[in-house]
Known about the structure:
140 residues; mainly beta; four-stranded antiparallel β-sheet; globular
Amino acid sequence: MKVWDLRQPKKLVSCLREHTMGVTYIAYLERDQFVSGSYDEQLRIWDQRMFRVLKTVAMGGGVWRIRAHPLQPHVLAAACMQAGCRVIDTASDEPVLVASYPDHTLAYGIDWIQSSHEDYFLASCSFYEKEIHLWSLRAQ
Length: 140
């Protein structure tokens, strides 16, 4: 991944080479952090000020989409292609697998859907089945 200074378009700030395959997703998290996913099956959380990796999580499949929980941004849901969907809690030094949803042949999309004031479920989709699945962490 290359980081550019938008005030000086020709100035390359940093070249981040931690991912070994193509990067498929990048998004701001919170507290000067961003998250990236890649075909190398790794989810990485970065310090955006120093451009260094804070945490790396092996996801078991190419990480196609990542979504932070709306109320708990340290809980991340990821569509991990051939590994299905995974939800991890990154609050501690060692991220914890909270749930997995293997019912997709090739998981490509995921997002949190609010069902009540503080209750959320997940919507995920696949490439081959052409289906959207709705599932809850409570049912895991």
